[in-house]
């Protein structure tokens, strides 16, 4: 009962916030609705018993990445979009047709009765202990590769964004 | 399992109700006699000039960016720390490798002056 | 019908994905475009977590974990590039960044 209510409630919030993100004229409003979208998704992860994923969704996405987005918006001092930055009616219509068509197609595909219809709650899937075990036993190589990716983006960001004084 | 999170839901609901209620109560109960002076940004100061939305300094950007990358590092350390005893020496060696690779990046940023507040 | 099932989670994920896609197709502000890309990544994450939970298999959740880390790295480098572009061009309107356009 509770999970049914939460699913519909959070899905509606997530979709409304997503629509807010793409329609807001002001980038700051866009970013804030995206934060709301991320929080709703974290709630949906909780209903799927993925506790750890829900927590890092809040910490990493809502807490860190969106703060960086807001900093950049304020750094670039972007006001609301000007008139000519809005897509034409034709572009808008075609995009909505493409998006709606995609949703219809996926919905039709997902109407197929999928095999597992009950949540496998016995496995205590999303607990931190399980994640730790998987991460350091079965997924060692991707784990080490992530450190190299982070190193590369560290170096790249410093190289690209840092302003050097002209000698 | 979701039942364990029911208190969190109640807390969120209470926070929302209390926040909205206090703002609305202050609006309804408090006397409101606005004048033009009271609505100005600095009641007994100079008139504000220009927009409040000025550009930030890029220094803030560098700090936020480096924060995200090391934030991810800590997120990876957390599940390891929870299972530290069970996972043993091998996992410890993996984690040390992970930290060393990111420490190289830290030294690079330090040398390039990414942490400097010019 | 109203009970949340795997199919419903996947439909929500498809809707979020296509909203992100519409955003990428219609907006011209590079930062909002980036946000829409993040939203699409999140939609895919939702479907992966749903599969992982209903199949009782770990792979989906570990994949989401790594997707998040790569998304963070991508956001950092992408926003750094936006700042570099802004230093040269004074705006981030994608239709005006056309130096290489023939």
Task: Write out key terms for the chains shown.
heterotrimer; B: 118 residues; mainly alpha; Methane Monooxygenase Hydroxylase, Chain G, domain 1; 4 helices; 69% helix; C: 102 residues; Helix Hairpins; elongated
Question: What are the SSEs and their pairings?
Answer:
The complex is a heterotrimer of chains A (167), B (118) and C (102).
Chain A (H helix, E strand, L loop, with lengths): L1 H22 L3 H21 L3 H26 L12 H22 L17 H11 L1 H22 L6
Helix pairs in contact in A: 1-2, 2-3
Chain B lengths: L5 H24 L6 H4 L18 H25 L1 H29 L6
Chain C lengths: L5 H21 L3 H26 L3 H31 L13
How would you describe this structure to a colleague?
- The complex is a heterotrimer of chains A (167), B (118) and C (102).
- Chain A is an all-alpha fold.
- Chain A has 2 domains: 1-78, NADH-ubiquinone/plastoquinone oxidoreductase chain 6, subunit NuoJ (Four Helix Bundle (Hemerythrin (Met), subunit A), Up-down Bundle); 127-167.
- Chain A has 6 helices and no strands.
- Chain A is globular and about 50 Å long.
- Chain A starts with a helix and ends in a 6-residue tail after the last helix.
- The mean pLDDT of chain A is 83.
- Chain B has 118 residues and is mostly helical.
- Chain B has a single domain (2-112), classed as Methane Monooxygenase Hydroxylase, Chain G, domain 1.
- In chain B, 69% of the residues lie in helices and 0% in strands.
- Chain B is built from 4 helices and no strands.
- In chain B, helix 3 (58-82) runs antiparallel to helix 4 (84-112).
- Chain B is flat, with a radius of gyration of 25 Å.
- Chain C has 102 residues and is an all-alpha fold.
- Chain C has a single domain (6-89), classed as Helix Hairpins (Orthogonal Bundle), CATH 1.10.287.
- Helix content of chain C is 76%, strand content 0%.
- Chain C has 3 helices and no strands.
- Chain C has helices at residues 6-26, 30-55, 59-89.
- Chain C is elongated, with a radius of gyration of 17 Å.
- The model of chain C has no long low-confidence stretch (mean pLDDT 87).
- Chains A and C meet through helix 1, helix 2, helix 3, helix 4 and helix 5 of A and helix 1, helix 2 and helix 3 of C.
